[in-house]
């Protein structure tokens, strides 16, 4: 039980990334059926907010790196290795791996729906990563003054849904575009992603409260590996050696980072315990001196 309690944040983040990876496949299937991306985001956040607000109503350190010790060096090295792995998956293909005899499941997708733009795409991807990182840091700061993860997740999803609604309405004026058929691919895509946004954001905030923003952010690289593997097994997409190499680098980098974080946390706890023992000893000594004085 002690081991499970110690690694509970790791398990939660691992399961969270699996759930987020599946979101990509539902989203791709919905977009291939003609669902407007802006409307999708609006419905997703609004549904998530509606799910979270009742729980929020009724239920309810910034990262330091020391480059002079092995713990800090492991965190830096792990981050760089994982970054190299994700970059390898994105930019390097290499020879294709032989396909499996048959894919497990095939999702009906329209061909020609992906438009490659090697200028706009990388720029938007980098901008997304930067804003995503800032979002994690802001959450960590907010939790110090507002330590209620369910309410925070509900507010974020609610405000996100409102912003997306305004943006979507400005771009999409046709009422028919907002109509979603019950139990269609679009319906299940919005439902699943909305539930994920509600549950997983709340779990991520809890993990951030326990382990810090860097711990949570590093698991995003694992999501990239999961998407590649699931696309190969489920959709029958081609798997390249560059993706395999990048996946191994991501896992190795994540291991180094988690090792450094774990050792650092143990060190901080021992230092805190030692300081408390000294303070208790000093108080006892002062009390003894005062008692002996006439």
Automatic annotation (TrEMBL):
Keywords of this entry: Membrane, Transmembrane, Transmembrane helix
Q: Name one GO molecular function term.
A: transmembrane transporter activity
Question: What lineage does the source organism belong to?
Answer: Eukaryota, Viridiplantae, Streptophyta, Embryophyta, Tracheophyta
Q: Domain of life of the organism in this record?
A: Eukaryota
Residue ranges annotated as transmembrane are: 12-35, 41-60, 72-92, 118-138, 150-175, 187-207, 214-234, 240-259
Q: Which Pfam families does this entry report, sorted A to Z?
A: EamA
Keyword Heme included in the entry's annotation? no
Recorded protein name is WAT1-related protein
Protein localization: Membrane
**Its principal location?**
membrane
> Which GO CC terms are listed, alphabetically?
membrane
Family statement drawn from the similarity comment of this UniProt entry: Belongs to the drug/metabolite transporter (DMT) superfamily. Plant drug/metabolite exporter (P-DME) (TC 2.A.7.4) family.
Q: How does it sit in the membrane?
A: Multi-pass membrane protein
Q: Which residues form the EamA domain?
A: 120-258
- Output the InterPro entries linked to this UniProt entry: EamA_dom, EmrE-like, WAT1-related
Organism, as annotated: Gossypium darwinii (Darwin's cotton)
